[in-house]
Specification:
Length: about 80
């Protein structure tokens, strides 16, 4: 996950496929693909002028060029490979 201020992040494709999930204060906005379920981005409750976004959702990104990236198992909320 990476961070961008609101004006720095633009969804260029698939806006019509995004599903929004909110709870409690409804300040945080969590977006997922309605087709495959992948988390794409969210507006943070603690910093509502920022988005956290899934770097793997950026078209043509070379993830290997970013160095070692910890993978998270969302189901178990743990970092993959940790004992």
């Amino acid at each position: 996950m990476a961070t961008a201020r609101l004006p720095e992040l633009t969804v260029t494709q698939g806006v019509d496929k995004l599903s929004l999930y909110q709870w409690n204060t409804r300040v945080a906005l969590h977006y997922f693909c309605s087709v495959c379920g992948i988390y794409t981005h969210h507006r943070r409750r603690s910093a509502p002028d920022e988005y956290g976004f899934n770097v793997a959702c950026i078209e043509n990104i070379d993830l290997d060029s970013l160095g070692e990236i910890p993978l998270t198992d969302g189901k178990d909320l743990s970092i993959v490979g940790e004992e």
